[in-house]
TrEMBL record:
Residues 20-121 form the FAD-binding FR-type domain. It is an enzyme of class 1 (oxidoreductase). Keywords: FAD, Flavoprotein, NADP, Nucleotide-binding, Oxidoreductase. It holds the Pfam family FAD_binding_6. Its cofactor is FAD. Residues 1-20 are annotated as: Disordered. This is ferredoxin--NADP(+) reductase.
Amino acid sequence: MTEVNLMTEASAAPAVTKPHLPDAQTVTQVRHWTDRLFSFRVTRPQSLRFRSGEFVMIGLLNEHGKPLLRAYSIASPAWDEELEFYSIKVPDGPLTSKLQHIQVGDEIILRPKPVGTLVHDALLPGKRIYFLSTGTGFAPFASLLREPETYEKYEEVIMMHTCREVAELDYGRQLVESLQDDPLIGEMMAGKLKYYPTTTREPFHHMGRVTDNLSSGKVFADLGLPKMNPEEDRAMVCGSLAFNVDVKAILEGFGLVEGANSDPRQFVVEKAFVGDGI
Ligand SMILES: Cc1cc2nc3c(=O)[nH]c(=O)nc-3n(C[C@H](O)[C@H](O)[C@H](O)COP(=O)(O)OP(=O)(O)OC[C@H]3O[C@@H](n4cnc5c(N)ncnc54)[C@H](O)[C@@H]3O)c2cc1C
Ligand SMILES: NC(=O)c1ccc[n+]([C@@H]2O[C@H](COP(=O)([O-])OP(=O)(O)OC[C@H]3O[C@@H](n4cnc5c(N)ncnc54)[C@H](OP(=O)(O)O)[C@@H]3O)[C@@H](O)[C@H]2O)c1
């Protein structure tokens, strides 16, 4: 893997890590997308098994030598030999104020106990699946879009991702563009994936909140799809709490019922973060 490090700030302050931590993994790639978004890859513990869409706890040692851990969706698919993460940079955030400075060769802590609701097992079979996200809520879908099961289970996959500005869509756009050349799923996903990125505060070819584009029927009209219905459609939702609450109400309005690992239904929801946003 080549290191792509576009922002000069990345080399400013070293991350607070110590070699040979328990559960340590080594950073293999870092890429900064905007001044508030970056992605990175780390080595994968040999024992780690997870389902595409799940999250784990990762972090660094704090100044007192204690682990400072946060939940992170694994953005890479279950078959990948490394693990990828897509992260916010919270300027005064306890973890990400330091994590944003990691470089290739640094170590992070990764607790190998994956969990989460955004997994195929939590949904009943259907014809189409909608992945609905804002901001870093794209991360679990970066995993699921690279998961062969997604294309085996569904005839159509609709990826909706909304950010305020165009540059904030770049990680998702480049990932979607890379899929057609992926030797594992390029052929499987041909003609199945409909990508619908939108912005809300900067001009773009498609604009508007996910909620508004679902409620108005605009996304269905633009993509030539029928209105969402519980017989054919399934959905996974990942964004801020406000986004999740609003999308859930809309999906229920279409007749879809929320499911869980233990009780598969028509849609599942997971928080992209706790709080109101930075
Ligand atoms: C199930 C789950 C999965 C998560 N997956 C990811 C992920 O894949 N990528 C990721 O960047 N974060 C993810 N998070 C959020 C993550 O756990 C941390 O909150 C984030 O890394 C910031 O940590 P911090 O210590 O710097 O600040 P914190 O003290 O954790 O957060 C400070 C404030 O920043 C805001 N904030 C935190 N995270 C975000 C975010 N992602 N987008 C916008 N505002 C945010 C919130 O208002 C929060 O109160 C996830 C959270 C949960 C619960
Ligand atoms: N994004 C930036 O450029 C930026 C820069 C600096 C600081 N911040 C701060 O960071 C925090 C988080 O910003 P963010 O852009 O990552 O996340 P966000 O505020 O959750 O917005 C992300 C996207 O989700 C949309 N959205 C928000 N609430 C929604 C809801 N209930 N239903 C449907 N769509 C919804 C937003 O549309 P709307 O635009 O219509 O709200 C936006 O397109 C904010 O407090 C902000 O002040 C953001």
